[in-house]
Design goal:
mainly alpha; 183 residues; 79% helix; single chain
């Protein structure tokens, strides 16, 4: 296909879309990826993210997915969209654990963890222990240099929840929560 060979990415993606074949899809991700690079150089961040989204949603088997997630995480952190960046990291870690992009983004994501610890702690301070616990447990799904703090918070929350259950005479539940606190 001449448009693809000539790096006419917009035209190539349109032809590939019309072809609607597996072979065309294997090249369409390259078109969107190249368009994302052009948009990024032109500082068109929204266009860059749209290209990434197209690949992630329409071409999920693309070998470019780890790199795209890495790039998107980096952009989202720069845009102060920590929640979106963290969710992308969880996807990257869950689906591409051994990718060099997963390893490469780890220090960036590790810098986000104090933000989540703070948010989870705020829920704890207002008595929403279940939400706080859920948030802290989510932080254990991947490696982090903050794991000691996270595990201590989780244990403390299990103790609080166990005390509440015991006060309400739900002793079996309290016992299970105390057991979880010891882990």
């Amino acid at each position: 296909m001449q448009a693809f060979e000539n790096s006419n990415w917009n035209l190539a993606k349109d032809f590939l879309y019309l072809a609607n074949t597996e072979k065309a899809d294997s090249k369409m991700d390259i078109c969107y990826f190249e368009l994302s690079k052009i948009a990024l150089v032109q500082n068109k961040i929204d266009s860059t993210l749209v290209c990434y989204d197209k690949i992630l949603s329409e071409l999920p088997q693309s070998p470019l997915i780890p790199e795209i997630l890495f790039n998107r995480i980096t952009l989202l952190v720069a845009l102060d969209k920590k929640g979106d960046a963290y969710n992308d990291y969880l996807t990257l870690y869950r689906n591409h654990t051994n990718s060099n992009f997963t390893q490469k983004v780890q220090p960036i994501v590790d810098e986000l963890i104090p933000f989540y610890i703070g948010a989870a702690t705020e829920f704890k301070q207002v008595g929403d222990y279940d939400t706080s616990l859920e948030m802290f447990l989510k932080l254990t799904l991947h490696p982090t240099s903050h794991s000691d703090r996270i595990n201590a918070e989780i244990s403390g929350l299990y103790y609080i929840l166990a005390d509440i259950a015991a006060e309400k005479e739900r002793y079996a539940e309290a016992e299970g929560l105390f057991e979880n606190a010891k882990k």
